[in-house]
Amino acid sequence: MLAGLNALELGRLRMSLGYGTHKKGRPLSPIEVGELLQKARSEGMSLQDCAKAIQLDGVGHIGRFLTILNLPEDLRHLVGWGADKSFLGFTAAFELTKLNDDKEQRIVAEAIMSDGLTSKEVRQIAQLRNRSEKTIRECLNEVLGMRKQVTKRFVFVGSMSTESESILAQKTQSARDSILTSAIVNLGIRSATGRLGPKLFTLVGNEDFNASMLEIGKENIEARIRALVAKALENGSSES
Q1: What's the CA gap between 161 and 68, in Å, rounded?
Q2: What does 23-91 look like in DSSP terms, one character per residue?
């Protein structure tokens, strides 16, 4: 066991980090993994203790999970597994933490989703920013300029109602995302993927996604997503 964690939490950690978990799906997001590790650490557990309890060979990745907790709160729900450009992959999120300013992290985070920045490109941007007097926009444009081709994606960010925030905060990232996916389908938004946090939601997609938003009316989307999420919460939709 790990001090500070119950059997369910430890089980979820092992299922999220153990060998072959990428093939089965992980119950926790990288941020949720970091939060549980931080909880154990606050009870005096060392990195070695954590690795042993989770049945990992070393402590290399554990520090990264703790580091991404330094990202601004409004970016945390966007961190996911893999390299899907519709959210912040774990490695890209870790590279983001090398930027020292929250505002600059947000600018690059949006570029990850809209321009499909790779973790390598995020690392290049952070290195360029930290070693030069260039602005974050200049660094971003310079790295993008090295590409042979740029594929543009569209990003829409909206907020949740105060009433929904406390309920959403108690749910896992996968449960929140399931609720948002249902809202996207019910609203008729095409070619979109999304992430739902306790306070914000983010939609990402291609030209068809942008066209469907224009058909619905971008000015209406935030309120309608809010209403659909609130209704799902009222009906007790999805697991915790």
Answers
A1: 26
A2: HH--SS-HHHHHHHHHHHHHTT--HHHHHHHHT-S-SHHHHHHHHGGGS-HHHHTTEESS--TTSEEHH
Q: How far apart are CA 172 and CA 162, in angstroms?
A: 18
Longest pairwise C-alpha distance within the chain: 54
**DSSP structure class, residue 199:** S
Q: What is the pLDDT of residues 137-193, one digit of tens each?
A: 999 999 999 987 767 889 999 999 999 999 999 999 999 999 999 999 999 999 999
Looking at the predicted structure, is the pLDDT value of residue 217 above 60? Answer: yes
What is the model's pTM? 0.87
Sign of CA dihedral 203, 85, 69, 104: negative
User: Using the 8-state DSSP alphabet, how is residue 159 labeled?
Assistant: E
CA distance 29 to 155: 21
Question: Residue 165 and residue 238: Cα distance in Å, rounded?
Answer: 16
